[in-house]
């Protein structure tokens, strides 16, 4: 990495004052009608870690994709290390000195770690790739990120965290001057995050400029030097991390002050004389979930708490019926669903938004409208198609009601931001008018603004008399809206907290017990 | 380096050894090197085609045009040598160039118009067969001292066997194929494309260029196979090599290459082609079985390998999740 130090010191000598490593001037980009970036300017010095923050749809992803040449820009200029740059694709951007590590590991799972690290940069002897040299190089690169693994093994035999570090090692292999980390911590545990941070500090000391995108404000304050906030495609401003309080930061991000956002104290009590809507009687499945009872009344929100792997998702799946229980009975209203198909469950008023939005929820190639209509169409049966006029009416209504940001309803859902995708899935179920809605991690991976909007929607639905079962790993979120909280541990229900007892401390005590 | 990804090719090797061992155990004649060298010669054109197909399948694509290409190249060669009076060496060069050109064209269509390879090469399959008929409707002999000379090249092995020109050409093309696959940037790009084309693009792999090169390479190998087939049979016939594209795909899959791309070896394809040959030879040695039993055995093996690979993929996924 010595070339980096050399490069910067030359610049400093020549100019007296440090010239920014990366300079972005008045960058704009629009997609069919939506202005994704509007005259964004920012500068990053070498040896600086810059947080790039903003709500979903603020333009972070677009900015990164324009920087790395995935999208062409409409106007503006990018200057890297004193030279005007215009990358034509990701590979070109890497050669010019900008490397990117994405949230989803963008390596080839079927190739070895070594092959991944050296892809497109293999050293050759007599015109043929020398795997001996490649292995040496791979080991060097792995050592650089502090990884001690066998480079000859297949990439997908390692955990996502290790794959992420391999991706960073690769990003550093290409003489990077700027490193962009796009939510690299989403799949890492706290030890792994510390390992990543140690690496970031070392790279910073070596003079690399780093742009760090994350949803976790704790991480912003523990690692970054400065913060650039984007909102609606515009640059709100760049701040020194040390001088910006959290509440200021949040209000910059959402464009409102924090007081507006903080939800009011919640009344956990509910009249228990209401009839049960959903009844689970001794429902369980071997090696999946210990048998348990659960009741949800109309207009009641039941939260499911527990650590990762405690059985939260399993409970949702069994209640919905996407995984069939091998014992017990599920009843929704007057209908027994124990042996019925999913279609029947949807018809009598069941709805389910799964945890993994990308895998189980959206059909990325289909449009917003088609994604939203799916469940309603399924419950009506495929032989009675919903007319286009009705579809447009329903979808239009939902886009307004949930404030979904999309240029038009026929845009592929894959192009929407995470929060907006989540809203579309929510809308998918809302138009079927479910009696009971099951939400697994409804706010995972979405920003603060959309977060509050979704919580608001959940409460509203409950007031309209819908029953909700909401699983979440965020306790402070659960206690905000849940009337009751079921605590899961080791695939069994260990407690059910009511009314006054619903608090973060109480839940934690149960989990720790 | 034994890991889970090498299991299919090890299974292929095992099947090869078992089948060959069975032949040696059961039939005296099988012990002679003649059987082995005949296997090399008789399956050369299939293996050569399948080597090109390996690259295509590794990248996650398919090439249905190779069988027709063999027939077309043969008929074209016969025309150039017999009617136009061109020296066979030039005729072969022209035939290969035409093969590469058609492959490149299909690659361009697949890469730039983003049309499925299946459809584009299906069109190629009909087109080349039609072109072959356009040149000649009947079977014609290819007789030229140079071609006869090539057929006479022979490297004797111990026993009664020996390497023919055809077998040697196949082995050279096999080695070139292995080197291209494992020792060039293009080869690694092919694996990357098949593994995850979206990630490959982000890693800087020139996707479109690689796709074009893949179909050009398959065009080259199938044209080469056409040349070898013409030398092997000493004739050209527009209806030759019908269905060879499917035999080639079978050879690739039995050779351990994942149909979804990204995993596999060119050497495995060689074994896959040889296994098909051994089955045929065993059935001939038996004498009582109809030759259609070959298809039955190949079908069964194909199914076995597809299931084996699926099993391995699921096993790896489960293990890395744990």
Automatic annotation (TrEMBL), chain A:
Record-annotated ABC transporter domain positions: 22-257, 272-511
InterPro entries documented for this protein: AAA+_ATPase, ABC_carbohydrate_import_ATPase, ABC_transporter-like_ATP-bd, ABC_transporter-like_CS, P-loop_NTPase
Matches recorded under SMART domains: AAA
Protein name stated in the entry: Sugar ABC transporter ATP-binding protein
GO molecular function, one term: ATP binding
Gene Ontology CC terms: plasma membrane
Pfam family name, one: ABC_tran
Source species: Marinomonas arctica
Automatic annotation (TrEMBL), chain B:
UniProt-listed Pfam families: BPD_transp_2
Location in the cell: Cell inner membrane
A GO MF label: transmembrane transporter activity
Membrane topology listed for this record: Multi-pass membrane protein
GO cellular component entries: plasma membrane
Signal sequence annotation: none
Membrane spanning stretches: 7-25, 45-62, 69-86, 92-113, 120-142, 162-181, 214-233, 297-316
Main localization, broad class: membrane
Top-rank taxon: Bacteria
Entry keyword set: Cell membrane, Membrane, Transmembrane, Transmembrane helix
PANTHER family reported in the protein's UniProt record: ABC TRANSPORTER PERMEASE PROTEIN YPHD-RELATED-RELATED, INNER MEMBRANE ABC TRANSPORTER PERMEASE PROTEIN YJFF
Name this polypeptide is given: Sugar ABC transporter permease YjfF
Source species: Marinomonas arctica
